[in-house]
């Protein structure tokens, strides 16, 4: 294998041109600083997953010829599924920027494209080799990683697919040749010393470091890779799934806020109708197809938010309740918010960027903020549930939610900290029971990527499992269910929403 790489170095100009210009019809893309920033964040998440893989490598020595226990299978999925999600995103960056990088504008644009695509390739190869080295020696682990888990988005034969990809000589050869090309072209960006290139220079340094560590690991595992990959079966469904997922992930990661005007399955008219069904305090779950806004989280539903309504709607819904007046004073909740969080109240009362009033409180990549109905709910799927709480208990939750406005988004998805918040954490913190003072809602936490978190899918699962029982905490309000085939959404039933959490994370029927 090393001899092949060395021959490749001698034939660098010819091989490099063949590897990176084979697809002449593919459009070249020039990465922006936002692309570099999004990729840098993605790589940090990949490194977290890598740490979890190494921390749990003991599984490979624990299981030699026995199947995994239920607990350890869940543990494995908690970092195996995020590994696959992040891998797909990295492959998307390779396809978007590494293919055709030499046609991406001028020489400097080409170098930026090379940096972006190459660091994605290096990070992907490094993390795949780590999985193979740390876990692949155990046949029970390999079997478990090849099993399907629809809610985690894991398809059949995923581990064997990685083996096949890593066994291809062009994988390491592409990385080696790309690294050589980058080293020669990088100085031009350094000489310019442009602020806009700071992110690309950081990525370039990471790429060179990753490539150096990959080489030794690849040589160590090459014989086993080739031997095992030969026997790995090809699964066409997996290939179709992977191809669909990675096509535009890199583009989406730069801005996962909106699918695009006019492209959401839920129509503007349905958003208007939904608004008439909602009350302040309602919990919403949302999905936009093919967006990796919550990499690694299991389940069909990736986003949760709170409906608070307009200031007038909030006043009408809650301020007249005697218990609300007793707790917050004669002016009710809205009066208390004006007095105690005036800056937040001012933001709330202002118009959203689309000119509509704010009605939604949510955490997105920009942080915890207010959004209009169109901004937040014109998606592909939207479920609404209502807490079985009194007016004053909902008022307490909304007051708590208002106090989260302005906090940064928690890209670590860590529920043990509240200085930064993820989407479902806003719902969790706002409705969290306080012994002896407020009832709230008890929401289930689970461990994902080594951290306690609340996948929004679990909110719908809780709604389904508790419905009709004494412990029921949520009731049905509405469900707008997307249909890719007709580019529309339909008004669905309570039963449909109850069943939705069972849907696969990456729904092949939507391909």
SSE topology sketch:
Elements: H1 2-10, H2 12-20, H3 33-55, H4 58-62, H5 70-98, H6 107-135, H7 139-145, H8 158-167, H9 169-192, H10 198-231, H11 236-246, H12 249-254, H13 268-277, E1 283-287, E2 303-307, H14 311-319, H15 322-328, H16 332-340, H17 342-349, E3 360-364, E4 367-371, H18 373-377, E5 381-387, H19 391-402, H20 423-431, E6 446-448, E7 451-453, H21 456-466, E8 474-483, E9 488-491, H22 494-500
Helix pairs in contact: 1-9, 2-9, 3-5, 3-6, 3-10, 5-6, 6-9, 6-10, 8-10, 9-10, 15-16, 16-17, 19-20, 21-22
* Main sheet properties: 7 strands, antiparallel
Number of E-state strands: 9
Q: Examine the coordinates and then state which fold CATH places here, giving the name of the CATH topology of the largest domain.
A: endopeptidase fold (from Nostoc punctiforme)
What's the structural domain tally? Answer: 2
Low-pLDDT stretches: 1-26, 230-262
Strand order of the largest sheet: 4-3-2-1-5-8-9
CATH architecture designation of the largest domain: Alpha-Beta Complex
Helix content: 55-70%
The radius of gyration is: 25 Å
- Terminal CA distance reads 38 Å
The SS-based structural class is alpha+beta
Count the DSSP helices: 22
Report the CATH superfamily of the largest domain: endopeptidase domain like (from Nostoc punctiforme)
Query: Rough shape?
Result: globular
**CATH class category of the largest domain:** Alpha Beta
The oligomeric state is: single chain
Strand fraction band? Answer: 5-15%
Determine the mean pLDDT.
80
């Amino acid at each position: 294998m090393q001899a092949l790489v060395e021959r490749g170095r001698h034939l660098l100009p010819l091989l490099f041109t063949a590897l990176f210009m084979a697809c002449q019809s593919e459009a070249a893309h020039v990465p922006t600083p936002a692309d570099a920033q999004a990729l840098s964040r993605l790589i940090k998440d990949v490194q977290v997953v890598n740490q979890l893989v190494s921390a749990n490598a003991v599984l490979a020595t624990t299981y030699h010829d026995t199947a995994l226990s239920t607990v350890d299978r869940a543990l494995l999925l908690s970092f195996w599924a995020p590994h696959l999600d992040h891998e797909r995103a990295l492959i998307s960056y390779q396809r978007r920027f590494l293919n055709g990088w030499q046609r991406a504008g001028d020489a400097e644009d080409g170098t930026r494209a090379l940096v972006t695509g190459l660091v994605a390739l290096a990070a992907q190869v490094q993390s795949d080799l780590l999985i193979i080295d740390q876990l692949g020696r155990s046949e029970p682990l390999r079997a478990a990683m090849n099993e399907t888990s629809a809610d985690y988005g894991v398809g059949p034969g995923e581990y064997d697919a990685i083996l096949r990809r890593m066994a291809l000589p062009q994988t390491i050869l592409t990385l080696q040749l790309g690294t050589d090309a980058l080293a020669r072209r990088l100085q031009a960006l350094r000489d310019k010393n442009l602020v806009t290139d700071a992110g690309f220079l950081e990525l370039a340094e990471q790429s060179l470091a990753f490539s150096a560590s990959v080489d030794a690991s690849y040589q160590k595992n090459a014989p086993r890779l080739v031997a095992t990959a030969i026997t790995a079966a090809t699964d066409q469904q997996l290939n179709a799934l992977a191809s669909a997922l990675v096509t535009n992930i890199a583009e989406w990661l730069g801005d996962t806020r909106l699918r695009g005007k006019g492209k959401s399955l839920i129509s503007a008219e349905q958003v208007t109708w939904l608004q008439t069904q909602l009350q302040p305090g309602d919990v919403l779950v949302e999905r936009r197809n093919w967006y990796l806004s919550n990499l690694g989280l299991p389940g069909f539903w990736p986003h949760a938010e709170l409906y608070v309504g307009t200031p007038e709607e909030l006043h009408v819904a809650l301020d007249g309740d005697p218990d609300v007046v007793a707790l917050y004073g004669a002016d009710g909740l809205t009066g208390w918010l004006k007095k105690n969080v005036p800056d937040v109240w001012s933001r709330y009362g202002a118009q959203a960027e689309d000119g509509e009033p704010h009605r939604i409180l949510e955490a997105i990549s920009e942080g915890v903020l207010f959004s209009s109905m169109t901004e937040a709910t014109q998606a592909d799927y939207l479920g609404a549930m209502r807490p079985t709480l009194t007016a004053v208990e909902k008022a307490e939750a909304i007051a708590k939610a208002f106090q989260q406005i302005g906090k940064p988004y928690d890209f670590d998805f860590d529920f043990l900290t509240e200085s930064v918040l993820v989407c479902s954490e806003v719902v969790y913190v706002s409705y969290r029971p306080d012994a002896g003072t407020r009832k709230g809602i008890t929401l289930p936490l689970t461990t994902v990527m080594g951290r306690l978190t609340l996948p929004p899918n679990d909110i719908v699962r809780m709604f389904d499992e508790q419905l009709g029982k004494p412990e029921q905490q949520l009731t049905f309000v509405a469900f707008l269910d997307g249909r890719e085939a007709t580019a529309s959404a339909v008004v669905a039933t309570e039963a449909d929403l109850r069943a939705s959490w069972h849907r696969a994370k990456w729904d092949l029927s939507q391909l």
